[in-house]
Amino acid sequence: MKKVEAEKAKKTVQDAKQKLKTGLEVGSESPVSEYALELDNPWLYEEYLSKDLTTFMENYWKRNYLSGHWLSDHFPQRLYIGNSFCHLLFPKEDQLFQLLEKPEKRACR
């Protein structure tokens, strides 16, 4: 009896994970949820500007030990630029405008 209940619970969890995965398609707006990525320090600003989004995100997930997480297959819908704890980590004006213009350039391609 307990074995049957355990199998049902496992299947329910697997089904829920599959629904989340299929609801989130790479680079799309998701009806299930969305997430934002915070670029909060100078080396993240530089890395984001110097790499394409796919490479940047792969490196981001690896660096945070989350490359196997289901969310790592998806792109963020929003970027937050700056550090909420230290105003001195905010990007310089020219770098800020580069960060703001990059998504527009990507969308035009």
Structural features:
single chain; 109 residues; mainly alpha; two-stranded parallel sheet; 4 helices; 53% helix
Give a written overview of the molecule.
By secondary structure, this protein is mainly α. The chain has four helices and two strands. It has a two-stranded parallel ribbon with strand order 1-2. The protein is elongated and about 65 Å long.
Question: Would you report the number of β strands?
Answer: 2
Low-pLDDT residue spans? 22-27
Specify the biggest β-sheet: 2 strands, parallel
Q: What is the average of the pLDDT values? A: 77
Count helical runs.
4
Radius of gyration: 18 Å
- Order of SSEs, N→C? HEHHEH
Structural class based on helices, strands and sheet pairing: mainly alpha
Morphology call: elongated
Strand share of the residues? 5-15%
Largest sheet, order of strands side by side? 1-2
**What's the N-to-C terminus distance?**
57 Å
Helix content: 40-55%
Produce a short descriptive summary:
With 109 residues, this protein is mainly α. It is 53% helix and 7% strand.
SSE inventory with pairings:
Blueprint: H1 2-23, E1 36-39, H2 42-50, H3 53-63, E2 78-81, H4 93-108
Parallel strand pairs: 1-2
